[in-house]
Write a structure and sequence with these properties.
4-stranded antiparallel β-sheet; mainly beta; 57% strand; 6-stranded antiparallel β-sheet; 114 residues
Length: 114
Amino acid sequence: MLIKKKNAASVPREDAHGGSGGRRLYVTNGDLENRDFSAMTYTLIPTGGVFDWHHHDGVEEIMLVLTGKGTVEDRDGKYQYSAGDLFIFPHNIEHRIENQDDQENEFIFVRLRV
């Protein structure tokens, strides 16, 4: 088989952001020949959970909201999110993500090196 296939359910869940959430690392830089690609994750933030202030050195991040509602913050302001919203975080920009819903929030993150 020349095409790589993975079953999402077989990718183990691991802690993310110090245990404040979880993720499944669907694709890593070792899965692709593209040197700019860092990772693609399916991420969960529990009810009331927060990915507190953080940044990614030399990595741009794309966040697609699959389910839930909450806020994303950067040092310029606070922005509401809901299912279908997409955010692009420039490299080295501090940001914070908070689940303000009564259910676990689900996301897809894609990270690219700059």
